[in-house]
Amino acid sequence: MRHSSWIKRLGMVLVVGMIVSACSTSSATTSPAASTGASGSTGASGSAAPASMKIPSAPVAINVLDVAGNLQLTKGMIENFKAAHPEIVSNVTYSTATAPELAGKLQAQQQGGNVQINLVLTGTDGLSAGIKNNLLTKVIPDDQDMFPNLMSNYLDPAAAMQGLAQGYGIEIVYYPSGPLIEYNPAKVTTPPTTPQELLDWAKAHPGKFEYARPANSGPGRTFLMALPYLLGDKAPTDPTNGWANTWAYLKNLGQYINVYQTGTTATMKDLAAGTVDMIATTTGWYINPIVLGTVPKSTAVGNFQNMTWVTDAQYAVIPSGVSADVLTADLDLIAWMLKPDQQAISYDSGYFYPGPAVKGVTLDMAPPDSQSAIKAIVPPQFDQWISQFPKVTSLPADQQVTAFDLWDQSIGKK
């Protein structure tokens, strides 16, 4: 009897131990998502963040490559995540490159079996190249559980831009973009409001209008993709067969352009220096360089009559070949970046104005310095134009790559 009782007690101890062990294992892989940022501010309702985070087997270091200038908008979110979740991330390092360099960097690492780039922040240019060359990890629907209600939480135009990712990335910031023109009002007294007026102005002022190479410039590619709508091309989403008016126009305009800069910042510096008097721009690229002092506050902005906004976005994408633990940490981080309190950081200094991709994120939620910078610079007509003119998404990935290649081959060679 005593022996039988001891065996029963031992069995109970083993059962309890197994239950405790199971609970312990579960808590090591899943953790309730933090409802506050590192600063302690509570996220607004409608957050796209998951109900729980998956925890890697050990904290990981994440190497972030930015090919879009996105860290200006999101580095604060990433640092907040690092501070709030040391059980997921041990360290974050940052590097930058141009969008055209992205595919080569990822291909070299993947072919060598040594993927060191863990997360990429990119615009539609790098996204398109990554998809075309099969360099990215499929996130949706594979990890849909990490992003509940993703599409319904996005602003409507942002939801349309998420579709361009084809499941290979998550949109983290959005803006209506352009096309807009930026100019020195002391030199341009009557700014053009149609493509023909722009062409006439450029002909009368050779070398004084500029836009950057579309493959590496948000304003450059927005100008390129908007022209088919402004010029009445038969198929605005088909650069190969439907852009006859656009290609003819750009060749004609190119006669009066001295150089196609490799990036937008160079065009801003040319405008500030007086090398040119007018450039292609967007909402964010008009605001932010003024805030930073790159161009003078006297710089003016104009729109085209009956324009169509070609919206833009930036994405977090995960290279193929990252470890399971890095993948887990990446997904946790991206979900965190979609929380409304973190999204408010993307107002920044107007670089991607407005910036937030999800609903319910207003300027009064942004950091005080962002609020003051934006209120001091943003022209009142921006919000009017955003509500007044229709919006279309940027070209799909394959068509965007085609458009860039065609521009490089037929327009960009000088």
Describe what this molecule looks like in 3D.
It is a single chain. The protein is an alpha/beta fold. It has 16 helices and 12 strands. The strands form 3 sheets. Strands 3, 4, 5, 6, 11 and 12 form a 6-stranded mixed β-sheet that branches. The longest helix has 28 residues.
Which terms would index this structure?
414 residues; globular; disordered N terminus; alpha/beta; six-stranded mixed β-sheet
Uncertain parts:
1-28, 32-51
Give the termini separation: 98 Å
Query: What about the largest sheet?
Result: 6 strands, mixed
| Secondary-structure element order, N to C | HEEEHEHEHHHEEHEHHHEHEEHHHHEH
If you average the pLDDT, what whole number results?
89
DSSP summary, beta strand count: 12
Task: Give the CA-based shape.
Answer: globular
Taken as a percent bin, the fraction of beta residues is 5-15%
The oligomerization state is: single chain
Into which percent range does the helicity of residues fall? Answer: 40-55%
**Structural class by helix and strand composition:** alpha/beta
Q: Any idea what the radius of gyration is?
A: 25 Å
Q: Number of helix segments?
A: 16
